[in-house]
Structure formats: C-alpha cells, structure tokens
Write a structure and sequence with these properties.
Elements (H helix, E strand, L loop, with lengths): L1 H14 L4 E15 L11 E15 L7 H67 L5 H9 L1
Antiparallel strand pairs: 1-2
Length: 149
C-alpha cells in the first residue's frame, strides 16, 4: 500500500512543473424591488430582474529558476525508490526466515532419527549385558550401567 502511495506522490510532485489551466463559470440572477418611489396610479411595487454570466480562464506556470520543483520531484522519486527497496528487503527477509525454518525442521527430524537409533542401540546393549550377566560372564555393576544408559 505504501508503494502505491509513494508512487502517486512522486507523480503529484512532478505535476507542479507543468502548466496549469483552470476555468470557472458563474451565473447570478438578481431581483430588485424599488419601494417608496411615488408613482401615481401604480399600485404594484416596481421591480427589475437581471441575469449576469461570467467566465474566468486562468493559466499558471511557474518557472523553476532556483530548482525547487526539480528538487521536490527528485525527493519524491527517491522516496518511492526507498519504499521499493524496503519492500524488496522485506521479501528477502521473509525468504530467509522460511529457509531458516526449513533447515531447522530438517535438523530436528534428523536429531529425532538419531535419538531413536541411539535409544535402540542402548536397549540392544542392555539386553546383551543382561544376557551375559545371567550367564555369569559380567558383574552386576556392568548391568546397572547398561540399564542406566
């Protein structure tokens, strides 16, 4: 949304350098009553009606002698480009975060597989040590260590 707003703002800033033409049309209808004029035999109040129309045309163009308009346009364009770069940076950051999460997920899956394999190995070792203990080939301390693992 900010990209669209700054894009419109940069176009507006450049519009000041162009000539501007304006037109205005006015219409006025007026009625006047003349009260108190001594007119013999006239019982009605004298009135006059008038209608006036007016047309105004304006042409305005500012010469950019000191570079104010060019600087304003350049600043608006720079703002637009900065917003576009911010948007690109946000996209890159989002892609980076997704990649980071994907690698973390894959690492967690591999650690789970490794932990399961380690637990299976400890169970197998404990069974072998128990078997040897029961045959009298290992002391009870070895069995306790194997079971604690």
């Amino acid at each position: 949304m900010r990209v669209l707003a700054t894009d419109a703002q940069s176009r507006i800033a450049g519009a000041d350098a162009l000539p501007q033409i304006g037109a205005q049309f006015d219409g006025v209808r007026e009625k006047r009553n003349f009260i108190g004029l001594p007119i013999p035999g006239g019982g009605d109040v004298l009135t006059t009606r008038s209608t006036t129309f007016g047309l105004t045309l304006a042409f305005d163009w500012e010469l950019d002698v000191w570079g104010r308009l060019r600087a304003a346009t350049a600043a608006a364009i720079a703002d637009r480009e900065a917003i576009e770069h911010d948007l690109q940076a946000a996209h890159l950051s989002l892609v980076g975060q997704v990649a980071k999460l994907w690698f973390a997920l894959r690492e967690t899956q591999r650690q789970l597989v490794l932990a399961e394999a380690t637990a299976a190995s400890f169970r197998t070792t404990a069974e072998q040590v128990r078997d040897r203990y029961e045959r009298g080939l290992r002391p009870s301390l070895d069995l306790r260590f194997a079971l604690s693992n």
